[in-house]
Design brief:
Length: about 220
């Protein structure tokens, strides 16, 4: 419908539209405007739904988020490693002052302080995780130290990665040992099995866990 202008005529000449005719035009014009607005709103809703649907089809991009879990318990009660033991696993209560995260999408934290294991079940095969582990070591004499990550625990195919090897020439107190490494969620055993850090040395030692940072890249 074309716009229906109200005829007002010459001032005080009483030649314009009557009140009935004027308001009839106003109603007609208003009805058309409301109809156009409703159509525009429907189009906006439809386009928004199409954008959401098409966004899920976009591929080739990665997203990154990270956590920093710092420990308070082992500074008061260090972990005791018995010489040549193979069951010295590192703990972290994740409540230290340096605990932090960048996680805008509200993804699950991978470290579970209740079990002292990493849980990768929120990830997909193809995702990657970068770790930085930070501990302090006290040893009574020269010794070689190894850090491992035990992966796919509880599955039919558990395995272990060597992530750091350090040689201390003399005795030390709270010597720092830091390692940075990446893992690839390459199969479902890795994704669904638990993972944790293991300390290895043929000599005895005590360990203070400062914490670990881990950055997740999802595909």
């Amino acid at each position: 419908m074309s716009q229906q202008p109200i005829i007002i005529g010459v001032a005080d000449a009483k030649t314009g539209d009557s009140l009935f005719s004027a308001f009839t035009k106003i109603n007609a014009n208003t009805t058309e405007v409301y109809a156009d607005i409703a159509a525009a709103e429907a189009a906006i809703v439809a386009n928004a739904a199409a954008i959401v649907a098409n966004t899920s089809l976009i591929t080739g991009f990665t997203k990154t988020y990270w956590f920093d879990a710092s420990d308070t318990a082992t500074s008061a009660t260090p972990i005791t490693h018995t010489a040549a033991a193979t069951n010295t696993y590192l703990t972290n209560n994740a409540i230290g002052p340096n605990s932090n995260s960048y996680n805008p999408d509200g993804n699950s934290a991978l470290w579970n302080p209740a079990t002292n294991k990493f849980d990768f079940t929120s990830l997909k095969v193809g995702d990657t995780v970068q770790f930085r582990i930070d501990i302090n070591l006290s040893n009574a004499a020269a010794q070689e130290v190894d850090l491992f990550m035990s992966l796919a625990e509880g599955t039919a195919a558990p395995y272990e990665l060597s992530i750091n090897h350090t040689y201390y020439k003399t005795a030390s107190t709270l010597a720092n040992d830091t390692a940075i490494f990446d893992i690839y969620i390459g199969d479902d055993n890795t994704r669904t099995g638990g993972a944790r850090f293991r300390f290895g040395s043929t000599a005895a030692a005590t360990i203070v866990v400062n914490g670990w940072f881990y950055k997740v890249t999802v595909v």
